[in-house]
Amino acid sequence: MSQSTMNNSNEWMQQLARNLADACAKRIAAAAESEKLDSARLALCDRLADAQARYDSALSDLRSGAIDEVIGAARMAVAGADAADLRVLIAETEPGVDAANRAYALASQAVSSAEQAARAAERAAVVDALDQHIAHVEGKLCEAIAERFRLGLEQDGSHWGNVLAKYWKPSEPLRCAVVDGRVPKQGTHS
Question: Is 51 exposed, middle or buried (0-12, 13-18, 19+ CB in 10 A)?
């Protein structure tokens, strides 16, 4: 791999890391906004439950005769008005909560995409490094085979031999990989 290619690859990996960090930061911000809006909506829902409980309590007290009609009606009217106002406020928060939840989902998808891109780039870098290593090993193997052939010719006293198999044969896993195109099994070479 050339220095220029390595620099470009490193720059690309750094850009992918920045993209991932940016996506994670946006997801955190979206989660915080969603949580903030959801908490506000839940607080309104709690207040609505309290208003409904005050209404129910006033109605129960009125029915049991614990309070007179004027006080019961006033308490019920105040609690009912509070509940109505809170229902409106809750309804007004729903679009914001929904938008925040959608933003969080989109931010999560962006994180997932950035993670996938980073993993793909890492795999590509590993594949490239392996391809370079294989090319280097193949070169060394070919040098060694040529030297073995030369020495075999010298040993036999012949300078006109042309049959490599007389002096060297590939291992079965190597033969299967090169000739048959099969993936060699790990640990089968000797």
Answer: buried
**In angstroms, rounded to a whole number, what is the distance separating the alpha carbons of residues 40 and 27?**
20
Quote the CA–CA distance of 149 and 154 in Å, as a whole number.
9
- Nearest partner of 82 among 56, 48, 44, judged by Cα: 48
What are the b/e assignments for 86-101, b being 16+ CB within 10 Å? Answer: beeebeebeebbeebb
Within 13 Å of residue 144, how many CA atoms lie on the same side as its CB? 9
Residue 119 tokens read as: 């993993």
Given a contact cutoff of 8 angstroms between Cβ atoms, the answer to whether 51 and 37 are in contact is: no
Q: Examine the pLDDT at 3 and tell me if it is beyond 60.
A: no
- Tell the residue number behind the tokens 């291992």, with chain if given: 171
- What's the CA gap between 144 and 49, in Å, rounded? 84
Global pTM exceeds 0.90 = no
Whole-Å CA distances, 7 to 3, 4, 116, 131: 6, 5, 22, 18
- The class level of CATH for 3-125 reads mainly alpha
Residues with Cβ within 8 Å of residue 58, at least 6 apart in sequence: 67, 72, 75, 76, 79
pLDDT per residue over 160-187, tens digit each? Answer: 667 888 888 999 999 889 898 999 887 6
Q: Which value, in Å, is the radius of gyration of the alpha carbons in the chain? A: 38
